[in-house]
Design goal:
DNA-binding; 6 helices; alpha+beta; homodimer; two-stranded antiparallel sheet; three-stranded mixed beta sheet
Chain lengths: 163, 163
DNA sequence: CCTGTAAATGTTATAATATTTCAAACTTTG
DNA sequence: CAAAGTTTGAAATATTATAACATTTACAGG
């Protein structure tokens, strides 16, 4: 998996999308998982920007594709994509975002800009370490970590309302 | 604010509740905030256990009190309690839990047992430190951190289905 | 005590998010 | 091909949250 663009900075986003799709195909093949047309399309829609997309936003776009989909279609696709680590759910926003570390074994940390809406996913191993330490100090067996940081990205600290 | 019981272990929970209410009254007085009967009752309901309670669970209990409440009543009370740091929202569960560090300046970390449902709130300053470090390394100004760890509490690692 | 003002609550309706259920179509495998 | 399992379609409904506006309550200043 190659280097990634930084959401907050302008970049050729088509490259992000096609990289994500290529990776996804490879990952699914390796895992014998079926990246069906619907699933692939949902992944592509999720990747249309670095802003999290709600399930109903995805649904609306599927509809404007001409695809007559109902909510379960979208949620099922999203479940599949999550299970295979291709998208993440941002709990604090009830929305979904493409995973920039697909295939890697990771538990991400998300930096969510409240001004422009872009989200950066980080690996932050030092954070994970401390989280595990804190948990095991309490005898707690950590299985799944939700770590979402809302704030202001570098660009929006300077000037507001970037896209 | 005095020492707290550990949710996972049996304890005199009435003491938790009255401690929480006493603290809340003191905190609101200090801040010139009005802990009205509804707000206090909602806080008490949230504190009825160490398991997060959904807004509609609170609503149902208000109704069985004989109080004919609608959703906004509950959400408003919860907003107030959150603003004053008396309850926390657990984003990954869409539910609310009493704050065990009310009055202290903190950004909590939550250990959520997927078996018994109890939640322990930790201060974990080392984690906060690493989170801030990771964020500022990206030039990101962190304002609000959601940190929720799902897993198994000590008791449920041994035997399942504690209450 | 009145009264103006702000804060809090009541009330109705609706928006936004997510799941259940059962049926039909498609894929894979024997 | 047939059986079995997986995926998708479709309708209904559940769950969570907010908008908008009316009414009531608290309380500070006159």
């Amino acid at each position: 998996m190659s280097a990634r663009a930084i959401p907050y900075r302008p970049h050729n986003h088509d490259a992000c999308v096609s990289l994500a799709l290529t990776d996804a195909r490879a990952i699914c093949q390796r895992r014998n998982a079926r990246l069906t047309p619907i699933r692939e399309r949902v992944l592509e829609l999720i990747w249309q920007s670095h802003k999290p997309l709600g399930a109903y936003d995805v649904l609306a776009q599927l509809s404007s594709d001409g695809h007559n989909a109902a909510p379960p279609t979208v949620y099922r696709a999203l479940d599949f994509l999550q299970q295979h680590g291709l998208v993440h759910r941002i709990a604090s926003l009830n929305a979904f975002i493409g995973c920039t570390h697909a295939g890697e074994n990771h538990s991400g940390m998300f930096l969510i800009c409240r001004a422009c809406g872009n989200v950066l996913e980080l690996a932050a191993p030092a954070v994970s370490t401390e989280v595990c330490k804190a948990a095991s100090k309490e005898g707690f067996r950590a299985e799944d970590t939700t770590l979402e940081v809302a704030g202001l990205c570098p660009r929006c600290q300077a000037e507001p309302d970037h896209d």
